[in-house]
Amino acid sequence: MASAGKVRRWAAKKGAETPAAGVSTPLTEEQKEEKQQQQKQQGGALEQQVVAPPKLSAGQVVLARSGVKSLASTAFASGVRLAYTQRYAEEIARVQQLLPPGSRWVDSHCHFESILGRTWRGGGKPQVMEGEEILDLEGLVRSWPEGLDGCISNFVFKRLSKPGARLSEWGWIEEHLPQFSASSPVGSKIWFTIGLHPHDAGNWDAAAEQKVRKLAQHPKCVGIGECGFDFFKHSEEEAEKQEQAFRAQAQLAVELGKALVIHARQAESLCLKVLSDLVPESHPIHLHCFSDSLSHALLMCQRWPNLRIGFTGSVTFTPKLAKGKGKGKGKGGSQDSEPVVDRIEELLLGVPLERLLLETDGPYMAPEPFRGQTAHPGLVHRVAEKIAQVKGIPLAQVMEATRMSTRVVYGI
Asked: Are residues 81 and 149 in the same domain?
């Protein structure tokens, strides 16, 4: 791997800088018979006991009446299913009390294949389940709060995302395209983008381009990407491949009239150069999971009127949790001891409200107080709450503005 300095020299040379509903699993006939025998042996006659139902909290009422219980088929670590389900139900009740009727919002960026292929935990780092795939997309969608119009899932890896996986993200979307159709029970709430992430840029070739072109013809495909640069740890050869893949996808987005979704980390000038070379000023652009400087954000907004900037659950992290462990240490990391929270709040204050997008980037970076769990679109309102808090404006105003920005970029 090359050092960051080596990559910068290369850049300079280029001329740029689920839960269950809490209902017990019914006993099988065999288990019932065994239980009866045990009770008889203990001399206890079987008696039918009538127990008064417990008083339900507001969240438990939501849990009982809504689709939260539809997350039951999602895999959970041992002992956390009921607790997470009840907590999520309380969260839905809370946000619906905060917003006036008719409020609408969208999660503009997540990854279904990864969300549905993880073991959901009550805390700590979500575990990837090797060789197992969770298929209940419909259950996930039914669990969302009222007002969440839907989400846009990015499919950006040709290679397998985890050991033992049966499908890559590309394979997953091909297999599940019927669920995105108008005839699907959840088709009206889900859209997708197709592209190649910079971490997989080495797989961009003629066959990959043909595949992206084909999938981009689907009526529910609304963008190309995420694509771009990520200079966390890359050699000059890998950096060259990232630029080649980014340029090809930017050209394709313009040709097909699709939104361009950009992942750019530690590459402000290179990103600006590619866009200046290839992308018309009127083209819709989504700067995903933005973490660069405010000056860069404002410059990009000035150059491309239909560009919007996405923020994730990382904006909710506390100073202690947001503090980085060294240069480039993850999407929420910091290059030094300066609190990331201060920089994030500067961005949220400095970027105009009408240029913002809400996103989870699920399953990554679940917002507080769900940090360490599996992020999914049903939690994206927490990002909006943080924006409202920092800007000192009503939450409903954030929802309205970001919903409009989703229409501007993606036409939905």
From this structure: no
Assess if residue 78 is contained within a domain. yes
Looking at the fold, whether 250 and 192 belong to one and the same domain comes out as: yes
Torsion of CA 12, 327, 286, 214, to 10 degrees: 80
Buried b / exposed e along 361-380 (16+ C-beta atoms within 10 A): bbbbbbbbebbebbbbbbbb
Interatomic CA distance for residues 168 and 178, integer angstroms:
17
Cis amide bond preceding 346, omega within 30: no
Global pTM reads 0.79
Strand-pair partners of 259 = 223
CATH number at residue 242: 3.20.20.140
The partner residues of 153 in beta bridges, in order of sequence, read 110, 192
For residue range 89-135, list pLDDT tens digits in order: 999 999 999 999 999 999 999 999 888 876 554 444 444 433 334 44
Listed as ranges, residues in the chain with pLDDT below 50 are 17-25, 40-65, 72-73, 121-135, 321-338
DSSP state of 202: G
DSSP assignment letter at 93: H
Residues 241 and 154 in one domain: yes
Coil, strand or helix at 207: helix
